[in-house]
Amino acid sequence: MAKNALLEIKRNLEAHVGSKIRLRANGGRRKTIERTGTLEEIYPSVFIVKLDQESHAFKRVSYSYADILTESVEVTVCNDEGQVRITHVQQ
Length: 91
Hints:
The protein is of the alpha+beta class. It has helices spanning 2-14, 65-69, and strands at residues 20-28, 31-42, 46-51, 60-64, 73-79, 82-86.
C-alpha cells in the first residue's frame, strides 16, 4: 500500500515539473520552514526544488516522496488556475 502511495505522489509531482511551488517543511522543535522555488527534477526516490535566489541561502533542496507521505513536507503548486496541494491519497 505504501509503495502505491509513493508512486502516486511521484506521478502527481511529475505533472508539475517546471512549475512554481511553495514548500512547508518541518524544521524540528516546532519550527516550520517555508520556501518558494521551481520544481526542477524528479528522480526515483527524491525530487529537486530550485529555490528563489533572493530569499534563500541554498540554491537547491531535495526531499523524498516519503516526506510528503508522512506529512513532514507540504508541497503547494502555484499555477495560473490557482494553487494545488500535492498530498497522498488515503485508502
